[in-house]
Write a structure and sequence with these properties.
The protein has 143 residues and is α+β, with helices and mostly antiparallel strands. 45% of the residues lie in helices and 22% in strands. The protein has a 5-stranded mixed sheet with strand order 4-3-2-1-5.
Length: 143
Amino acid sequence: MAVRLRLKRLGRKNRAFFRMGAFDSRTRRNGRAIEELGNYDPHLEDEGKKYNLNRERIEYWLSVGAKPTNTVASILLRNGISIPGSQKQRGLTPEERVEREALKAEKAKKRELARQRKAIQQAAGKQKLSKAEKRAAKKAGGL
């Protein structure tokens, strides 16, 4: 029996959400699943709540040879679940994504501090300052 990981459409018109499941490849789109593996709501804004996946069971089904559809494969990669035999690289897990955003914020803060220090040094070296330079120096705490 060929098993596919695919989505089952639920919800009302223009407000669909999907359940991910392991299906026999011959069943219809909204047919009975062998096992429900999570859900996906494309209308939610928060990326963390958009996907609710049972990672353990998905990895099990992939290990025994279940083939994901293209849409499911992109969802899995986006959530950091690698697909055996796929050439695509997995995305970041939600935890890794938060960590990366924190590093970006820290780097941006360091860049801003360096920019402010540079404005102060330039302001100290010149006697006449333009309005923009005065504003930058005042922001940096120099004047």
